[in-house]
Amino acid sequence: MSAQPTAPARRPAIVAVDDEPAVLAAVARDLRRGFGERYRVLRAGSGAEALELLRQLRTRGDQVALLIADQRMPGMAGTDYLVQARAMVPEAKRVLLTAYADTEAAIAAINDVALDYYLLKPWDPPDEQLFPVVDDLLTTWESGAALEAGGVRVIGHRFSKESHDVRDFLARNRVPARWLDVERDSEARELLRVAGVDGDRLPVALLEDGTVLERPTVLELAERLGVAGRPASDHYDLVVVGGGPAGLGAAVYGASEGLRTVMVEREAPGGQAGQSSRIENYLGFPAGLSGSDLARRATTQARRLGAELLTVQDAVALRPEGAGRLVELSGGGVLSASCVLVASGVSYRQLDVQGFAELTGAGIYYGAALTEARSCSDQHVVVIGGANSAGQAAVYFSKYAARVTMLVRLVVRGPEGAEEVLEADACFVFIGAMPRTDWLDGVVARDGRGFILAGPDVPADRWPLKREPYLLETSVPGVFVAGDVRARSVKRVASAVGEGSMAVSLIHQYLRDS
User: Fold this and answer.
1) What are the pLDDT digits (tens) for 87-124?
2) Which of 61, 235, 241, 335 has its CA 20 to 30 A from that of 389?
3) What band does 9 get if pLDDT is binned at 50, 70 and 90?
4) Is the Cβ–Cβ distance between 220 and 183 less than 8 Å?
5) Is the peptide bond before 122 cis (omega within 30 degrees of 0)?
6) 103 and 118 in contact (C-beta within 8 Å)?
């Protein structure tokens, strides 16, 4: 008996709702012209009709990528519809159609319904006013959907540092992957049986080509997936050490201005900012965006402009040799450059409390560790710290956990003032940061806390030239610094991006003068 052909997967849906038939027809027409090959465009004449349509789509298991709704509709305003629709299809992007008089309601909706964009009517010509907006939103949705679908399957123990490291690497490098908990998922145990892998060889990564990796290191996994990359040149104009906002900013501007640029990042593009669940105050994004989304956009931009990106590579030493600057890598390689920009950022400060070191990565995490969020469903999560990052993490984990407790000064006391033991399923620590500059010890001038001195802060006895150092230049000519790792820097994402771009301008000046 011959096998039956598999039915093609249904395209994800875009749902448009407007009570004016002519406007609704125009929206649907333009959306089909721009995106009809990849998406189904469905129409509804009211909020109630659209909600019923969403129920049918969810019942069939169909994906919904985008919701577009008019604000002024009788019976149910667009914002009221989107509130209910968000509960049904939370991953779908949300756009509100408004007239100029409704912009106040649209701005309020950014917070009320996590609106992604509001679009003023009319949107003519659609090629300029509609398509770029929708294309950007769908690209962001597609990247998330791909990660959810998962190409690599990882099987391991929830409270295992090795399993956490693998999951975190895949998530931060935006490699599509699916996590299977060997204790909770029967599918995980069946896959291990079929693959012939013993339970003491976890974590296990099952690649799309059928390869089975038992207890892989992050570097091994990166090389097998083609994530790490290898240098394409013997010499560069600029080596950027660090892939946070400052490093990515320098990579974008350096490559766009004709410098042969390579960026080295020890973990994943985005740095600490890339782990932020939400960045609310970055210019040009009124709805805010996640650190991961910002890192994805910047990485794509840097590569498009010609910058090379080497991930899972750490700079371990810097050696000035004549007019050149050599950066030694953890894998044994060496990068040669005319200039180096140090944008290595900071590391989370470790909490010196009994038991924390042993449980790091296995229930205790530094930073947001967003890969663990869904595993915290219906559990008690403790966030240690009281600054902005800790508050953002608490809000983010509240979407999943049954209870979130913030500890700002660590000692837990009961109603009578006596110290108490607080039981928790997972703990996330945000108690400040320390600069990643140990690899530069004895090479560039640093302050007492390890931050790099630059420009007018460079000690006179450490500067070898007659001219003054440039504003972001370190005590070694041709070696610049930007971002959080610089002494007296402003710890903001926008400031770091600005310093990265400014450093490139100063590097041009250095190369001309040299």
Assistant:
1) 999 999 999 998 766 778 778 778 778 889 988 888 88
2) 241
3) low
4) no
5) yes
6) yes
Asked whether the bond before 125 is cis by omega within 30 degrees of 0, the reply is yes
Q: Where are the alpha helices (DSSP H) in 315-409?
A: 356-359, 388-397
DSSP state of 9: P
Q: Which residues contact 273 (CB under 8 A, 6 or more apart)?
A: 244, 245, 279, 291, 294, 295, 493, 496
Whole-angstrom CA distances from 209 to 172, 190, 241 are 22, 19, 33
Closest CA to 130 of 13, 35, 43, 15: 35
Q: What DSSP assignment string belongs to 38-84? A: T-EEEEESSHHHHHHHHHHHHHTT--EEEEEEES--SSS-HHHHHHH
| DSSP tag of 455 | G
Q: Which of 273, 305, 259 lies closest to 495, judged by CA?
A: 273
Q: Which helix (H) or strand (E) holds 292?
A: helix 291-304
Q: How many residues does the chain have?
A: 514
Q: Please list, in sequence order, all residues whose beta carbon lies within 8 angstroms of the beta carbon of residue 41, skipping any fewer than 6 positions away.
A: 13, 14, 16, 28, 31, 32, 35
- CA 249, 252, 257: angle at the middle one, nearest 5? 120
DSSP 452: B
The dihedrals phi and psi of 310, each to the nearest 5 degrees, come to -115, 115
Structure tokens at 271: 């740095």
pTM of full prediction above 0.70: yes
Q: What is the pLDDT of residue 229?
A: 82
Rounded to whole angstroms, the Cα distance separating 61 from 56 reads 9
Beta pairing, strands 334-342 & 235-241: parallel
State how far Cα 501 lies from the chain centre: 20
